[in-house]
Design goal:
The structure is a single chain. The chain is mainly beta and about 300 residues long. It has helices spanning about 1-5, 265-270, 285-290, 295-300, and strands at about 10-20, 20-30, 35-40, 45-55, 60, 65, 70-80, 80-90, 95-105, 110-115, 125-130, 135-155, 160-190, 195-215, 220-230, 240-250, 250-260. It folds into two domains: about 40-265, no CATH class; about 275-310, no CATH class. The strands form three sheets. Strands 4, 7, 8, 9, 10, 11, 12, 13, 14, 15, 16 and 17 form a twelve-stranded antiparallel beta sheet that branches. The chain is elongated.
């Protein structure tokens, strides 16, 4: 470890508990490049069940002052980069809404750091391994008719997201169902003393989004699914696998269902699944293991590579 740190700087900091939250920070610096990652989560659960129905109208306040008719709603949740946001602003009219929300997050120690380097290579492999799961499910409905309403929502799971903007609607109906889960997050950096060759952020996650709307104004729908490779792409900073951006003016009935799933092997668990058909397998690093043939491991011919007898 001392030899590695003398050549490339690798920082791994578990930040102290602040207000029941846990954080960690990873940083890799070479002569010519840097890469970093920051994670934050909590051991929490949250449930909400809300129903509202009424009429937005002018209100006579203290000393006869008349307050303009207005209704607003704000929601912002972020659990280990699993995010849920909504904004609503409405003027005079009839308004009703219903929401069910269930969110759970867990911090499972430890967060691991593995550093490997083959004796005949100048490439370092740095793995950060985190298991801080999150589950969020939500259903929302909204009905409005009146002088005008704006509604925005955003659902994001690490590098993936779906968002809608419903603007300047005199009449609006919306039904939304969201389900998001995060199982774990692995990050891998390949680097030499002089630069970073590859950086991957690999959260195992899924996002399920279903919406049905009747709009009479402007309707924007946008989604993006990202891959693990770092390439400084807009918004997420990582490669974009697929994306969409839609806009509608006027009166439309729109139904859309989106499912995104990304699964990555738990590198630490995968590294130990093979049986030890010869002594010393568990002591080898990943680069040396990759030079061995899997068939040879199972029929034990690999022992000849270690100087032993079959």
């Amino acid at each position: 470890m001392k030899e590695i740190l003398a050549l490339i700087l690798v920082l791994f900091i578990l930040l102290p508990e602040i207000a029941s939250s846990e954080s960690w920070f990873g940083y890799v610096k070479t002569t010519g490049d840097t890469w970093d990652i920051y994670r934050n989560s909590n051991n929490i659960s949250f449930k909400s069940d809300q129903y509202i129905v009424g009429k937005i109208e002018a209100f006579e306040g203290p000393q006869g002052r008349v307050l303009s008719p207005y209704c607003s709603y704000f929601e912002d949740m972020n659990l280990n980069d699993v995010r849920l946001k909504e904004r609503t602003a409405a003027s005079e009219g009839n308004y009703s809404s219903n929401e069910l929300l269930d969110a759970r997050a867990q911090v499972k120690p430890p967060v691991d750091l593995d550093i490997a380097k083959s004796a005949d290579s100048d490439i370092y492999k740095i793995d950060f391994i985190e298991k801080w799961p999150v589950d969020i499910s939500a259903s929302r409905s909204l009905e409005y008719s009146g002088k005008g309403i704006n509604n925005r929502d955003f659902s994001g799971n690490n590098l993936d997201f779906v968002g809608t903007n419903l603007l300047y609607n005199k009449k609006l109906s919306k039904e939304l169902i969201i389900g998001m889960s995060l199982d774990r997050m692995n990050a891998t950096v390949l680097a030499t003393d002089y630069g970073i060759i590859q950086a991957e952020r690999k959260p195992t996650r899924d996002l399920n989004f279903s919406i049905s709307i009747c709009t009479t104004g402007i309707a924007d729908l946008k989604y993006q699914q990202s891959g693990p490779d770092f390439d400084r792409a807009p918004i997420t900073g990582y490669e974009i696998l697929n994306s969409g951006d839609e806009r509608y003016y006027g009166s439309f009935n729109i139904t859309k269902n989106i499912s995104m799933t990304s699964k990555f092997v738990d590198s630490k668990a995968y590294d130990h699944w093979l049986p030890c058909c010869y002594q010393g397998w568990t002591d080898l690093n990943l680069f040396d293991k990759n030079t061995l043939n899997a068939n040879g491991i199972f029929d034990c011919t690999c022992s000849s590579m270690q100087g032993g007898n079959p």
